[in-house]
Amino acid sequence: MSKLLMNLRNVPDDEADDVRAMLDAQRIAFYETRPSMWGVSAGGIWVTEDAVFADARRAMDDYQQQRAARARAEYAAAKRAGTAATFITLLRADPVRVVMSVLGILFALGLVTVPYFLLRG
Questions:
Q1: Which residues are bridge partners to 47 per DSSP?
Q2: Could you state, in order of their start, the residue ranges of all structural domains in the chain?
Q3: Residue 27 DSSP one-character state
Q4: Residues 32-55: pLDDT tens digits?
Q5: Which InterPro entries match (predicted)?
Q6: How many CB atoms lie within 10 A of CB 18?
Q7: Is the model's pTM score more than 0.85?
Q8: Is the dihedral angle over the CA atoms 81, 84, 86, 88 positive or is it negative?
Q9: Is residue 105's pLDDT more than 70?
């Protein structure tokens, strides 16, 4: 029976391509399901044979550790270079989005606190 190796929800294309290439390189048989039309299913990469799923899982864990280390190194380099995204750079780049996000957060906090004030008195 096939087992899900990787859910493709919010997975960048380059990461999914890397996983496909890794599975091909290790000669692990897999297939891919596409996202559903209505967004119920995000799709996934499935290993077809139970016997090799543990090997695929180990390879996936190694890949994710390498990718995380690479992302941390890139972020550290961007911080040292002063090009890493900060709140101020986001505010300068897209002030409307930042202000709307802050207003949305404040509105949500207000909705959460309304019952407290209504029931307190």
A1: 3, 30
A2: 1-82, 85-121
A3: T
A4: 999 888 878 889 999 999 999 999
A5: DUF6164
A6: 14
A7: no
A8: positive
A9: yes
- 5 touches 56 (CB < 8 A): yes
For the chain, how big is the Rg over CA atoms in Å?
22
pLDDT in tens, 1-16: 899 999 999 999 999 9
Asked if the 1-82 domain carries CATH number 3.40.1660, the reply is no
Q: What are the phi and psi torsion angles at 3 (to 5°)?
A: -130, 140
Angle 22-5-28 (CA atoms, 0-180°, nearest 5)? 45
> In the chain, pLDDT over 70 holds for what percent of residues?
99
Distance CA 34, CA 20 (A): 14
Q: Give 62: exposed, middle or buried? Use CB within 10 Å, 0-12, 13-18, 19+.
A: exposed
3-state secondary structure of 113: helix
- DSSP letter for 8, please: -
